[in-house]
Design goal:
Elements lengths: L11 H24 L4 H29 L2 H5 L1 H8 L2 H7 L1 H5 L1 H4 L5 H6 L1 H4 L7 H31 L5 H29 L12 H27 L1 H6 L2 H32 L2 H10 L5 H19 L2 H5 L1 H23 L12 H22 L10 H8 L4
Helix pairs in contact: 1-19, 2-4, 2-11, 2-12, 2-18, 2-19, 4-10, 4-19, 5-10, 10-11, 11-12, 12-14, 12-18, 14-16, 16-18
Length: 395
Amino acid sequence: MNALRLPPIDTSRLQLIGLVVGGIALLGAVILGFTTAGGFFESYLTSFLFWSGLSLGSLLLLFVVHLAGGSWGALITRPLEAAASVVPLLALLFVPVLFAMRDLYPWTDPAYVEAWPMVAAKTAYLNTPFFIARAVIVFALWTLGAYLYRALGRRQDEATEDPGRTGYRMKNMAGLWIVIYIMTMTFAAFDWGMSLTPTWFSGIYPGIFMASQAVSAVALIILVMVALARANPTIDALLTPKRLQDLGNLLMALTMFWAYVQISQLIIQWSNNVSETATWYFVRLGPGWVGVSAFILFFGFFAPFMILFSRWVKRKRRALSVVAVWALLVQLLSTFWMIAPSFERPGADVTLLDVLLVIGLGGIWLALFARALGARNVLPANDPRLVKVVAEPHA
């Protein structure tokens, strides 16, 4: 009998909690949005970008672990597939953004375009039909990638002969899919985030989005694997301190890269000494936002970076879980810091609408994730990397 072929875990309670809490929060946000001065879609976009980052970061990591991951990569494959399978929901949740384009994106206003010649020069790219077309294309490609790898994973689980052949196929395709992810996420970051300030441009901006998504995904997977280990003795035995340390090292490396692209963009933009590029940082380093900027620098990077230097922290489940929760909160704050000032918020005051939409979209996302995670075996039963570990405990 295959020791890796486990019965699906029961996630019905988590699904119910996510749907109920998320639904109530979304209903409250809609009521509040229609009865107050506005700002609903601004908060909605911020929440959407954060929660979509968990799925898209997981999709990227799924390709990476098939391309280069060892036994630790095989161990986290199913949770990554479950998170990536929520991508079709993201496409549905993006529809309100399309309806609110005139409220969110200044370049949809002809008077604004006429007043800014540099924006007028971008109209071949920044126009509503092309914006929608790009969104359809990127969501279609992300959905295809998530579906393909989930289907191949199921085929590998059900294989009776040579399951490694399917594994090699997933590995051979992974490099191409990583390139597709980078290209599509570049367009998505330009469209959904950077074009909120159409007079500004940065080639590093998409890299910040991608790094943030990867950090969020690793943090999520650490929390999921620790929870699964508590519920299942097989996973508990496989989640050794060494494999936990591998995940901790990955979180530290990605946090370093995220800070690197953030600082690189700041240095390059500020050294240009051009008003159009410096304005983006001028707002975020101004009186209303400088406190958040400093917090992200010191407590979003330096503090977790120094903590993750500790081998003990990375090998202890509870300690690493605390760092993972903190990393998720920092990435949520970072998303807020990147998006909210574009709407001329005078400061970093978090509104009730912000909180309700984060909880609302998060509850729906969590319910769909839990449903996908509980729909099948939580371990890739025929993955040669894990089969070898079970056959040779010290492998």
